[in-house]
Amino acid sequence: MSVCQNLHLASPEVCEEIIQLFEHDMLTAWTRSILRPSEICGLLVGPHCGHWDIYSDWNVTLPSTPKPPVHPPVPPRPGAPTARVLFLTDLHWDQAYLPGSDPACSNPLCCRGGQPRGAGAGYWGTYGRCDLPLHTLENLLQHLAAAGPFDAAYWTGDIPAHNVWQQSRRDQLHALNTVTALIQKYLGPLPVYPAVGNHESVPVNAFPPPYVHGNQSSSWLYNAMAQAWRPWLPPEALATLREGGFYTLRVWPGLRLVSLNMNFCSEANFWLLINSTDPAGQLQWLVKVLLEAEESGEKVHIIGHIPPSHCMRNWGWNYYHIINRFESTVAGQFFGHTHVDEFELFYDEETLSRPLGVAFVAPSVTTFVSLNPGFRVYLLDGAYPGSSHMVLDHETFILNLTEANVPGAVPRWQRLYGARETYGFSTAFPADWDQLVRRFQADEGLFQRFWYLMYKGHPPRQPCRDACRKALLCALRTGRAGDPELCRPLSQELPFREIQARWRLRRFC
Ligand SMILES: [Zn+2]
Ligand SMILES: [Zn+2]
């Protein structure tokens, strides 16, 4: 409690509520934990005090069958079918959003009461520490036609708002069911494939692995998800969803989807204090799914909430091994959580120089913090025998809040940009994104364009230059946490420690 107050993490009322919320589960995890004092210090205070997963080195078992020969991706033949996948992430519906209320309050989430000093919270959303009202989410779903038609939708979590100090299981389930029903209403028969975000639970980030049973387990959440998402997922997928919040299914012939529960990689998930070795056996399961796909000639898309570079080191490095081993099978990786528009490159582990994968990190629907609402569409090499199912291009759509909140204005969801036209790609394969990071180094104008688009057309007032820019370019090359080698080709003088400190500054989601 005193730490919360002394560090000015929040107001005394918020501190008190948040501690009540965390206390019980946190103590259970603590007493069952196998951590040493230095690890606990690393968890609570930071990496200069101790590393909390350093003693639990673990490795997934990769198949004994050799990796198939690698062929660089080739563009589809002209006229080959393409597919469009709608991508929604981080909706963050605020059940208490109040137009006209104070957008600059002292709580972690605003626009939900209080007298504003200047302009109040906008009707459609606000540039500030605010999430979205339901009518903005509904308006988005009503205006998707111009971006479609779609062949499928991926939806990577974070449904409730950021009022994490006062949420209950009832609130979270109400958000899950209300938003799912809204999506079903407007997308109709379109198959939607969800992933579990870190905000779905209560307290936030708390996802006990399956060995925790009874009332403290996640079954209240996963069972409700299985119920709500039954129209979209087959019975086998619902079974693993109930168990661990992850699943696999066939999207269409030749393409398999894996939806990961990335909360099992997160150092914010204090339940992993008990044991952080491949929680729920999820990565070993992923290896099995990928091997079966490889043997049957399927391609695989991986979706998840938290992007791999934000994972604990051990989990992230194992995931990197898996992407390396199955580079010919994994055709796409899609994440959210950071709320901004970015990507993370994967390289071959032998030389760290050949780009073999890219994890796309799509911008949020929510405005949190000071963003335009937005969504993404991926254009894929489509469903036909021999298709690569790789991403050929992507487009981002936004609602410009300055325009939308003018009294009498009609909200207009507009196309912000397309990746290929903006960056002058002929394809959008991993090698193109690798080249792009190198081009950013030489071309200030192109980098500033990326910075503007990264924030969905509403970048922070302070421009990104020098150290900010170096840290960001390094992040784009980094598909696994804590690896300074990945940034060496950028030949920067900025110490890696400083780069990491800058990354931590913008983790607010
Ligand atoms: Zn989020
Ligand atoms: Zn998140």
Describe the fold and architecture.
With 509 residues, this protein is α/β, with parallel strands linked by helices. The chain has a domain at 86-428: 4-Layer Sandwich (Purple Acid Phosphatase, chain A, domain 2). The chain has 15 helices and twelve strands. The protein has helices at residues 2-6, 12-31, 37-44, 134-142, 169-187, 219-228, 235-244, 282-296, 313-325, 401-404, 419-423, 430-442, 444-454, 466-476, 496-505, and strands at residues 82-88, 152-155, 192-194, 247-252, 255-259, 299-303, 330-335, 342-347, 355-361, 374-381, 391-399, 413-418. The strands form two sheets. The protein has a six-stranded mixed sheet. A six-stranded mixed sheet has the order 4-5-6-7-9-8. A hairpin with a 7-residue loop joins strand 8 (342-347) and strand 9 (355-361). The radius of gyration is 22 Å and the shape is globular. The model has no long low-confidence stretch (mean pLDDT 92). The protein binds zinc ion (2 copies). Residues 158, 197-199, 305, 337, 509 line the site of one zinc ion. This is Sphingomyelin phosphodiesterase.
Count helical runs. Answer: 15
Average pLDDT, rounded to a whole number, is: 92
Q: What is the terminal separation in angstroms?
A: 22 Å
Secondary structure class reads alpha/beta
CATH topology of the domain at 86-428: Purple Acid Phosphatase, chain A, domain 2
Q: Which regions contain 5 or more consecutive residues with pLDDT less than 50?
A: none
Beta-strand percent range: 5-15%
Helix content: 25-40%
Question: Which strand order spans the largest sheet, edge to edge or round the barrel?
Answer: 3-2-1-10-11-12
Radius of gyration: 22 Å
Query: Order of helices and strands, N to C?
Result: HHHEHEHEHHEEHEHEEEEEHEHHHHH
Total strands: the figure is: 12
CATH class of the domain at 86-428: Alpha Beta
Could you give a short account of the major beta sheet?
6 strands, mixed
Q: What is the CATH superfamily of the domain at 86-428? A: Metallo-dependent phosphatases
CATH architecture of the domain at 86-428: 4-Layer Sandwich
List cofactors, ions and other ligands.
zinc ion
**Gross morphology:** globular
